[in-house]
Write a structure and sequence with these properties.
By secondary structure, the chain is mainly alpha-helical. It has one domain. Helix content is 79%, strand content 2%. The chain has a two-stranded antiparallel ribbon with strand order 1-2. Helix 3 runs antiparallel to helix 7, helix 6 runs antiparallel to helix 7 and helix 7 packs antiparallel against helix 8. The longest helix is centred in the first third of the chain and has 33 residues. The radius of gyration is 19 Å and the shape is globular. It starts with 6 loop residues before the first strand and ends with a helix. The N terminus is likely disordered.
């Protein structure tokens, strides 16, 4: 497995990292100012802001790759476990429970509400499973085109694309909750942004460790979260068209996120033999998101 020391790069790379942080901060301020000028319906604007916060979290997570040459696998697995815990709590407290309540508010009985949400969860999981099968069955050339040196192993690209793909249901969750005017929408966006930080770092470090330049690995890691504001805005717009789409949309997002956690994030966090640290990180992440979603909502 090799050494697992945390190695810091040169002073020039440190300046790159500091400059990137300042650039991201400035970009965030400009985006925030630009969003305030948009004449969007308040719920759509709230969804776009939440998605932008999630994308910023991913970009911030990718910054350390400009300085850190290698991260200890134990720390990486702990961060992945932490992200899995945050996503599990968000699925339960920000999507499933509010989804059942939204269905009951439409006049459905508790049995019918639970049945609707269960059907949505299964459909969301099935949809993402089919997408995952399609991506996993494609060749690296189909996914990223012909690559020159260095050649990144197919397994690395598939893992990166799996993380990027599961940003889609996260954006959906933010958009559906904001479009439905839910009180939990802001805490959900913050929780997802929080767990996006280690994701951005993992993508960047994995690519850099496979031989890609650190600057390019940072750019790909930072850009991997841009799908979230896009899908947040789209789903908020769809939910605003029909009330029935709110509980169903929440359930679809919950199913997709649940599949991502169990099929991708948790297995990856336990692949290197640090199961206990990954489990501890999961419990901490779950409790932190639960507090954010209930006590701070």
């Amino acid at each position: 497995m090799g050494t697992e020391t945390l190695t810091i790069g040169s002073g020039r790379m440190f300046r790159y990292a500091l400059g990137s942080l300042l650039l991201l901060a400035g970009t965030a301020l400009l985006v925030a100012q630009g969003l305030s000028w948009l004449h969007l319906e308040p719920r759509l604007l709230r969804a776009l802001q939440g998605g932008a916060i999630c994308a910023l979290g991913t970009a911030l997570g990718a910054v350390p790759v400009l300085v850190i040459r290698k991260m200890p696998l134990a720390l990486s697995d702990s961060l992945l476990g932490f992200g899995a815990g945050v996503m599990l709590a968000a699925t339960a407290f920000s999507l499933i429970v509010p989804g059942i309540a939204a269905a009951e508010n439409l006049g459905l009985s508790p049995w019918a509400s639970s049945g609707l949400i269960s059907s949505g969860i299964m459909l969301g999981a099935l949809g993402l499973f089919l997408v995952d099968r399609k991506v996993s069955g494609a060749s690296p050339e189909q996914l990223v085109g012909t690559l020159d040196h260095p050649v990144i192993p197919p397994r690395i690209w598939l893992f990166v694309f799996a993380i990027i793909a599961h940003n889609i249901p996260e954006g959906m969750a933010v958009g559906v909750s904001a479009g439905g005017g839910m009180a939990e929408a802001d805490s959900l966006a913050m929780g997802i942004a929080l767990q996006d930080v280690p994701e951005g770092l993992v993508i960047a470090l994995v690519l850099a460790g496979a031989g890609m330049s650190r600057v390019k690995a940072f750019l790909i890691g930072a850009a991997s979260g841009l799908v979230e504001p896009v899908f947040a805005l789209l789903c908020a717009w769809l939910v605003s068209l029909a009330e029935m789409l709110l509980p169903l949309g929440l359930a679809l997002a919950a199913g997709a996120m649940l599949l991502v956690v169990t099929h991708e994030v948790i297995p990856e966090s336990r692949r290197n033999g640090h199961e206990k640290l990954a489990s501890l990180g999961l419990c901490i992440g779950f409790c932190l998101m639960m507090v954010m979603d209930t006590a701070l909502a």
